[in-house]
Amino acid sequence: MSKLEKVLYGNRLKPFLFLVGLILMLPFVVKSSYIFTILILIGIYSIVTLGLCLLIGYAGQISLGHAAFFGIGAYTSGVLTTSFQLSPWLALVIGMVTTFFIAYLIGIPILKLKGHFLALATLGINIIFYILILGLNQLTGGAAGLIGIPSLSLFGLPLTDKLFFYFFVWTAALLVLLLSLNIVRSHVGRVLRSIHDSEIATETLGVKVENYKVAIFALSAAFASLAGSMYAHYITFVAPPTFYITKSILFLIMVMVGGAGSVWGAILGTTVIMFLNEIIRFVGHTYFGISGEVEIVVYGLIIILIMMFLPKGLMHVISKPIQKLKQKKKVKIKSHKDMISQKGV
Amino acid sequence: MKKLCKSICSFSLMLILVIALSACNMETSGGNDKKDGDGGKEVIKIGAIFAETGPASTLGKTQANYVKLIQKQLDEAGTINGKKIEIIMQDYETDDTKAVIAADKLISEGVVAVVGATQASTSMAILPKISGEGIPLMTVAPVNPEAKDIYQMAPSNLTNASLIIKFLKENNISKVAWINARDGFGVEGLPSFEKVAKENDIKIVAHEEFDATATDMTVQLTNIRKKNPEAVIVWSRTPGAGIVARNFKALGFDIPMIQSSASANKGFLDQVKDNNENIYVIGSKLSVVDQLPNGEQKDRLKKFREDYRTMFNSDPDNFTAHAADGFHLLIEAIKAGNTTSEDIHNYLKTEVNKYSGLTGSFELQSDYVGPYEDGFSVLGIENNEWKYYE
Question: B356 forms bridges with which residues in the sheet?
């Protein structure tokens, strides 16, 4: 059974331990608070893209509205902690639960749509949310934004220190990753994949497809909400433009660049996209003397090239050679065995 | 063939890794500089965070340009007390999250002070990070007057409001309509104006809002017309501000329209070209420097404009001047021998009092936020150029 699992899903322990090792090691190498902020944001965005990856890569449904769920989390945390003086932890949980139910209710009608129509419907959710946070200015501060969101603290230890927050965010991201990996391997994961391949075929097997689709949609929304709450407590300020469609598209790009077919792709894509912008800026400024608009053009061009030549994402590029190497090894062993048996004959 | 492919792949991966690492190391060494530097540093770094690109670039572009200009001037002037000043500019692409990353980058680089950000909401977003490190922040946008640890270079909304009230009183107007963009700048204007209007018995008979990226505001203006106001006040950045003005003319309004200081730029003049009587803007005197009475203020503004013109072949606006005031105050602090964030804070909070800026005179020790109204005036438009009224 374990062998079959390995063939089907690959090894999960080794890459997971590798990631844990990397996360533990990075603080020894990186000292600059700038890189730390990027690493923290990668952790936060990874939580969103992991959920999105389950929805897009496994269940085959698209969402262009995840910035709204990210925003619901951020604003729930923000409003509850500033206006109602609630504990940030309680606000975080309330945000997740609320988002789960909102997404569940929204999901029931809109997940009946398919393809472009679903994309447009989720886009609509994002726009409605954007208008709501602008309009409810008594509560959300409107366009001027919500200031004075407190930082998180854990067992009396304030997480204003970047190092603590870094570990906190990545612990949460790793838990979400572990959960996602388990979902993928469970029967739910198999149902999701079969929905991806053919909804009709899955339904003829007696599976209630809608239930699964709505549940995974709501779960990915809850992940986004968790990330949103963390974002709010890290930046300590939220304003509507952060939760506009452009952010949803950015999340989508992260998933697509990394490779929607694998949970690991989400983290890889998020990391690559977050660093790409900074590297272009750094290289562009230092070596080519370009600035502003030119950087954005280069950034766009790189994304277009990745989409054109690596439609399966970067994860595919990395995992393919490793798999080939393994296969070669197997073939070698096999041929060796064959030779021995032949000799025996 | 496959081997070639593989080697190319691995080579490019290695390359990316090396670049990323070198980038990391650059930052790390930047962070170390700060520690070394407290003893005796040769270079003093000042950070700048402006929206060189994105929607707010209509305001931020000239500010980013100004960084190049002042760096050139500083380099030509040589060292100050044996120390070189270096300005590190970060473009935040009109994105608050990127501004926070930029703020962290500047902190890592070891800057002693930061000028920015272009927008009010972004200034509030970076404030906790920057003031948390004890670094002075010179904002170039009108922020919430209750914000602490921030030095505001732009006139506050209250200053702007009292300028408008003065204009309304001179023209015997007592009923106005208010229309603003639904963005950070647009929504901050009304509360201050409401307060001053109430004190002066001016009634706001209509209030409309439009989306900051909208391209047609005739619906809102038609609603306003029903209420019969005697003037319309617009609080928005360009290009929205220009579109309101064009719609206003197309609908045949014959009452005055007064726009905020965010419209006092060349882009707005171009938008309302050839159809602009009865449109007024709260503008910096910088825009009408040739029409000013002779004096020290005129000379100062003229020199600023000419310097900018020679380098970029275009005119600076009041947003450029806000940024310039921020840098000049910091440079003055450094000239007075303050080379750490703490000393600069001290200098700005206790030592310097009166400062004649490009956008008005400051009194840093008073409770007044931003410059006084002497650098600003309600400007009209004549022959597609700004017109100054005494």
Answer: B361
